[in-house]
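dude i think i finally got it to work??
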Amino acid sequence: MVAETQQIPGTELDTKGAPLNVVNKLFIDIYGYTTLNDLETGNWGRLATKIQTITPSANETTNNNSYYDGEGFGSTEVTGKRYQLACSGQRYVGNPAQDYIASKQFAIGQALHCRVIWVQNGQAIVSEATLTNIVATGGEASANQTFSCTIEFNGKPRTINGQLTLTENADQLWTYKATIDTSAKPSTSTEPATPQPAQPQPIIPVKIVAANDADDTDKKTDQDPNKVSGKSEVGKA
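look at this
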């Protein structure tokens, strides 16, 4: 069925200059796979509905040293990072990403491992991760239930080799299938004749098709729970 409405021109979110945080998007594979070599096997739930804050932190390990040539002043060397995303907001029962995370609140060990795609200003950051600090309910009697968790990256994160497209599933809203065109290359400009300061590596912005994660009463919230837990064993890490 062809959509009968479309976004009003000029209302697109800007990823240049001083962008809003909402240009960043976070997806978790609700099939529970952990491999980073085949993202197309996943069912990617977007963690956005009722989510108010997503705060990254590097959790750096540092060595502090003083040397004779420092004349009394020390120096710091970063020797490691444990990147994480702290997510918080309100519980929304029926959102596949929230439901998947909430189902892990009493889990331990490997059951808490997952994989995530974090789209940061158009660039996809991909990582195997562990879910920690899951809070799936709670708060004052007259308030909406709270929801929070921490997504802790395991090892060095990676990016996409090519063009990543995330297309929303028509039969399970708030979830997306990933396709990757490895033949796509980022556009580059001609090298200047004179030396220039180092520039960031060009990226291919992620495409998100039919994204619609707003709190919409017309959406089907009584999702089939088997679509969250049921999965093919192909590609399971």
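The CA atoms of residues 12 and 23 lie 10 Å apart.
im so relieved honestly
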